[in-house]
């Protein structure tokens, strides 16, 4: 009988260290061509053009088959709901039968940060100790947790459009980290001299400019997941060594890439590789201490399905979840 796993159970089954290791493997599988995963299907909903995405994947090595249904409703925040909600359906890879329905909100929150942490492990300078986070929502929190596992962070600066959001972030997160957290008065102040820059805003326009970014910095560019949106000044994209989770996704969905190509600042060959290729060693990572590196993340179904399969396997072992007849 199919198993239902709620958010609290999924969270308890997927500690960040396990997710970082699992995402490294999933990225390698994807970039080696061993995953079946079409580009996600996206519907715009209502006048606010909210986002409804359907993200299926099949990962033969894990016998993992499933899909995520994800929504992004910016208006949810005013209702006290997260902007991003998701459900994952896992199917039996031999019969197609439903095996699990689980919360995908926490998996979206945590797997995205785990993938960024993999990018930091492979692309950031080893001595990176100062991090700037632009945005102070759900992803800002999970990125602090994940990236603190990849580098010894001394100082983390937070900037957000609404200063009170950044203040809340500092108050809530300081007890959970060894780094010193503080709110920066501007995005520029946050970014100057930062070794790692995390972009986790819902801004459709650039929030960071090339002249602010020091040589040798690594950028995790996580927001701006539609071809019309971007978080980075295109001159910064052109200056940097650019890596993506998926080449096909980056060229279709990432405004930071699509718009910079349209403006003639870069071409498709500017993408040096997929993160999974860097993890497996088929594409080189950081060239030298002075290059700026960017990991442009869009999020992939393989990440969700592999994380969901891990949660399901652990739930079965531990006897957790609720079986349903359907
Ligand atoms: P939240 O809704 O929790 O937080 C959104 C943040 O964006 C807030 O800090 C908010 O600032 C800020 N923001 C909203 N509008 C603007 C704007 N116009 N200009 C500048 N800042 C703005 O979202 P999440 O943390 O869950 O997601 C952050 C981003 O990451 C989103 O773009 C999301 O779609 C993307 N994402 C990407 C994933 C991937 O796999 N690559 C996966 C999940 C999310 P304030 O509160 O200060 O007003």
List keywords for this structure.
single chain, about 325 residues, alpha/beta, ornithine cyclodeaminase, domain 1, Rossmann fold, eight-stranded parallel β-sheet, seven-stranded mixed β-sheet, 15 strands, about 35% helix, binds NADPH dihydro-nicotinamide-adenine-dinucleotide phosphate
Describe it.
The mean pLDDT is 97. Helix content is 35%, strand content 24%. The strands form 2 sheets. An 8-stranded parallel β-sheet has the order 9-8-7-10-11-14-12-13. A 7-stranded mixed β-sheet has the order 2-3-4-5-6-1-15. It has 11 helices and 15 strands. The N and C termini lie close together (8 Å). A hairpin with a 4-residue loop joins strand 2 and strand 3 (50-59). It has helices at 7-13, 16-31, 105-123, 138-147, 163-173, 187-191, 234-239, 247-253, 255-262, 275-280, 301-318, and strands at 3-5, 41-45, 50-59, 64-72, 84-91, 98-103, 130-134, 155-159, 180-183, 196-199, 218-221, 241-244, 271-274, 293-296, 322-323. The chain is an alpha/beta fold and 326 residues long. The protein has 2 domains: 3-107 and 302-323, ornithine cyclodeaminase, domain 1; 125-299, NAD(P)-binding Rossmann-like Domain (Rossmann fold, 3-Layer(aba) Sandwich). NADPH dihydro-nicotinamide-adenine-dinucleotide phosphate binds next to helix 3 and helix 4.
């Amino acid at each position: 009988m199919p198993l239902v796993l709620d958010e609290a159970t999924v969270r308890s089954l997927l500690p960040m260290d396990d997710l970082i290791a699992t995402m490294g493997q999933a990225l390698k599988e994807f970039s080696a061509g061993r995953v079946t995963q079409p580009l996600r299907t996206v519907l715009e909903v209502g006048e606010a053009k909210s986002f409804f995405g359907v993200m299926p994947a099949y990962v033969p090595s894990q016998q993992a088959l499933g899909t995520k249904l994800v929504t992004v409703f910016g208006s949810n925040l005013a209702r006290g709901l997260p902007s991003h909600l998701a459900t994952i359906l896992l199917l039996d890879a031999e019969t197609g039968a439903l095996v699990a329905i689980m919360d995908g909100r926490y998996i979206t929150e945590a797997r995205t940060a785990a993938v960024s942490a993999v990018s930091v492990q492979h692309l950031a300078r080893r001595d990176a100790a100062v991090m700037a986070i632009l945005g102070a929502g759900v992803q800002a929190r999970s990125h602090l947790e994940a990236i603190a596992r990849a580098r010894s962070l001394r100082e983390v600066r937070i900037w957000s459009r609404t200063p009170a959001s950044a203040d809340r972030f500092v108050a809530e997160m300081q007890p959970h980290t060894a780094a010193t957290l503080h709110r920066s008065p501007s995005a520029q102040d946050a970014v100057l001299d930062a070794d790692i820059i995390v972009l986790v805003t819902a801004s459709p326009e650039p929030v960071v400019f090339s002249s602010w970014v020091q040589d040798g910095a690594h950028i995790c560019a996580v927001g701006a997941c539609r071809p019309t949106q971007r978080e980075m000044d295109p001159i910064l994209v052109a200056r940097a060594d650019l890596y993506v989770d998926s080449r096909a996704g980056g060229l279709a969905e990432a405004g930071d890439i699509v718009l910079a190509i349209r403006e003639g600042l870069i071409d498709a060959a500017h993408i040096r590789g997929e993160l999974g290729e860097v993890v497996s060693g088929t594409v080189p990572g950081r060239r030298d201490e002075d290059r700026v590196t960017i990991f442009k993340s869009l999020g992939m179904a393989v990440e969700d399905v592999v994380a969901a399969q891990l949660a399901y396997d652990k739930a079965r072992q531990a006897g957790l979840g609720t079986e349903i007849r359907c």
